[in-house]
Each structure stands twice: as structure tokens, then as C-alpha cells.
Amino acid sequence: MRNPRPVLGALGAVALVAALATAASSQTTSSKAPTSAKAKAADSGSPFSGAAVPDLPTPLRLRAFAVNMNSAGRPTSGTLDIVVERWSTPAEVDRLRTVLEEKPDNLLSAVQKIKPRAGFVRTQGSLGWDLHFARETQLPDGSHRIILGSDRPMSFWELSSQSRSADYQFMLVEIRLDKNGKGQGTLAPAAAVDYDSDTKTLEIENYSSQPVKLTQVEIVK
């Protein structure tokens, strides 16, 4: 497993999304990167493991109230629209899992090559950003776990200056919906993911001290 930098490596859109779900519930502060949060997710809880048979229809339109606790001064908030146009295929999931385990540096490229897009996310008034990975699993109690992932938009300055933030290449989203189509979730706008082949775990590192909270999530009909 490679770990030459404070970040855990190039994270995959697919893995990154699933990773977020776990990162939200079990973050700890990284000693190598004081401003980031690191979490480990057992492979059994990753977006690549187990049978995920989509039960929710597509297109699936969700609306959430997002609260960002990382902004300077005081928290910022706003409405977020998420649209899932299709669920990732088993072949796409297997391909990303293989890349993550064998060549994690190629994960970003593998995610960006997935066509067509899985959907998009946008704030009100914006054009939105494409999602490359979407997976849904129905849980024993009838609720749904949705994992979304994508690369993230980065400015020319961020890329050219080789800023530490440029190593956090993915956006991850995890949402839990109850039987009535309402719930909550988390969003990591900048995350890094790596895979520990020895322990069979995903290692997720969030650039910010904590992910964005998604509250009042509901299906829009």
C-alpha cells in the first residue's frame, strides 16, 4: 500500500462516494494532516462489496438542506438538488474495485472514463456537476443506503500550484432514506481514498475537518 504523503492517495469517484458514508460515522483526526479527517471502512461496508440490487426508480430526484460547518465565521447552508439518472452497473463496480486494489493511482482516470454519467448534483442556480458513480442498497429494515461519487471541480490555480488540497480529488455522498423517502446524509466535497490490501480496508481522508451535513433529505416527485 502506498502512503508517501499526508493524503491517502488518489481516490476513486466510485470508492470515494462509498467511502464518505463510512467517513461520516467514524472519522478521527489525522496526525499527519491536522486539518483533515481520516476513517477506515471494512471492505464489507464498501461500495464494492455485497449485492446491490437497485430498488429505487430512476430518475431519482432528491432535495436536501446542506449545512457546512467548516466555513470561517459561522456555518453556511443552502438547498442541494441531487438527481440519479442511472445506477452503476455490476461491471463498472467490479472495474473500479480492481483498479482501487491494484492500481489506486489510476482510480481518478477510471472514474472519469465512465460514460454515461450516473447523474448530477447542484446548488440552486448553478449548472451542476456530473456524478460518475451511484449505488443503492436496500437495508433489512426497508430503508435505503445511497452512495454517490465523482471527481471534483478544481481551479487552474489549485492544480498548477500543487496545493495539498489538489490531492483530494473526489466528492463523496452518502444518504440514508427511510421507507417514506425521507432521511439524512453527508457530503465530502474534497476527499482522498486508498485501499490497504493487508487489512482489506478502504482508507478515507476528508480534506475538511468534517463533512457537510445533509438534512431534510427527501424524494422530489
Question: What does this entry look like structurally?
Answer:
The chain is α+β, with helices and mostly antiparallel strands and 221 residues long. The chain has one domain. The protein is 17% helix and 38% strand. It has four helices and twelve strands. Strands 1, 2, 3, 4, 5, 6, 7, 8, 9, 10, 11 and 12 form a twelve-stranded antiparallel beta sheet that branches. The termini are far apart.
Q: Structural class, please?
A: alpha+beta
Beginning-to-end CA distance, first to last residue: 45 Å
Put simply, the count of helices is 4
Largest sheet: 12 strands, antiparallel
Question: Would you count the extended β strands for me?
Answer: 12
Instruction: Spell out the helices and strands N to C.
Output: HEEEEHHEEEEHEEEE
Q: Which percent range fits the helix content?
A: 10-25%
Approximately what portion of the residues adopt beta-strand conformation? 35-45%
Mean pLDDT: 74
Characterize the overall form.
Answer: globular
Estimated radius of gyration: 16 Å
**Uncertain segments:** 1-37, 40-45
- Total of domains: 1
